[in-house]
Amino acid sequence: xxxxxxxxRIARAFPLAAHLGIxxxxxxxxxxxxxxKMISIVEFDHLTHLSIYFQRxxxxxxxxxxxxxxxxxxxxxxxxxxxxxxxxxxFVRHETLRNCSKGETLIFNVPAITVHSREF
Length: 120
Known about the structure:
By secondary structure, the chain is of the alpha/beta class. It has a domain at 2-7 and 19-25 and 43-109. It is 28% helix and 22% strand. It has helices spanning 2-13, 57-64, 81-87, 94-100, and strands at residues 19-24, 42-43, 49-54, 69-70, 76-80, 105-109. The strands form two sheets. The chain has a four-stranded parallel beta sheet. The protein has a two-stranded parallel sheet with strand order 2-4. It is globular, with a radius of gyration of 15 Å. The N and C termini lie far apart (46 Å).
């Protein structure tokens, strides 16, 4: 898949990267399953800080599922709460818990609440 190939290129180009931030606000309707057992695991051995901002949870899944990506030294994770809950299936999905539980700091980006009222 394109997303997996993109991660492989980043890992190969920056093998010693300790901080990584990725932003993708574009919506694409070409969701791909990440349960393909034939893909190689992308390894970020030195990554300690990961900030991911995606429009769709399927993109966050590429980073957080340990069958796609290995994050053995992750300390700080900044991610959308909605994406994390979706990918981690309410924090019971073992494939995401292995990558996420290693961190010391978890920072959520919670979407703003919009109020529609005649009084405002």
